[in-house]
Amino acid sequence: MRRSWTAGRKPLANSPTETTTYFYEGAGGARMAWHETGPRDEAARPVILIHGLFSNAFVNWVRYGHAAKLAAKGRRVVMPDLRAHGDSAKPHDAAGFSDDILADDMLALIAHLGLAPGDYDLGGYSLGARTTARMLVRGARPGKAMLAGMGLEGLLNLGNRADFFRKVLEGAGTHDKYSPEWMAEAFLKTTRGDPVSLLLLLDHFPDIPRAALIEFEMPILILAGADDHDNGSAQALAAALPDAAFTEVPGNHMSCVTLPALGDAVAEWF
User: What's the distance, Cα to Cα, between the start and end of the chain in Å?
Assistant: First the structure.
């Protein structure tokens, strides 16, 4: 039986919409957080949105108004903080991580919320997109899905990207100013990420078999910035899926999250 921490707290500061934080028990009993906005009545269809690496639910979905656009359409918007991020558990021990820990935690959230197959939608940005795909491999069946900020190469093999972020964390304070590593470290400081926990997490991103993609039979939106090539080709990912739509918005991997077009595309899809 899963224990539940459901006490809300005050809305997040500077949020463009009222957002409440709740807690639940993730894999291994870890205290995990999700943030929620929009109506919670039975008519409000839930949509789960998962943020990217070094980020959190507030930065990805709330700060720039994306969640508010979905809430305005009557959607119940559920935005978890991944393990090692935000208000969720940040273990400093390898025992706090397993090979598919992010999918384990998010599947535990679906179970905690009592969501049946087809009764919710699911999407993520960057690592959130990869986590979404791992959940689909593991049997999650949303009505619609979204893989944003993700290309085919990054979905199938995150090795090079994981190595980049490992370099960012291990070399903190030594990177050349304005280098990609320096920029990533600066972003991590703004989100108050935990470098020790994040380094442990980087060892637990299992590959996604290409053959599994043909099993992703629900409609899936592939959403990417026009100048975003960080995770490979988004168009190639769309072509590899049975029922995918491809949408391009302005910006690169970092900047497109800050622009209204991303929230517009997400709200239109869901």
Answer: 32
At a CB cut-off of 8 Å and minimum separation 6, what does 42 contact? none
Exposure b/e, 21-39, CB count within 10 A at least 16 = b: bbbbbbbbebebbbbbbbe
Let me know how long the chain is. Answer: 270
Q: What is the CATH number of the domain that holds 49?
A: 3.40.50.1820
The answer for residues whose C-beta is within 8 angstroms of residue 145's C-beta and 6 or more apart is 121, 122, 123, 132, 136, 216, 218, 219, 220, 221
The boundaries of the domain holding residue 231 are 4-269
CA torsion 100-106-112-113 (nearest 10°) is -160
The whole-angstrom separation of Cα 91 and Cα 44 is 34
Structurally, how many domains does the chain consist of? Answer: 1
Instruction: DSSP letter for 134, please.
Output: H
Please give the distance of CA 134 from its chain centroid, rounded to a whole number.
12
Is the pLDDT score of 14 beyond 60? no
Q: What is the pLDDT of residues 22-52, one digit of tens each?
A: 999 999 999 999 999 999 888 899 999 999 9
Contact, 228 vs 252, CB < 8 A?
A: yes
Measured CA to CA, the distance from residue 96 to residue 79 in angstroms comes to 22
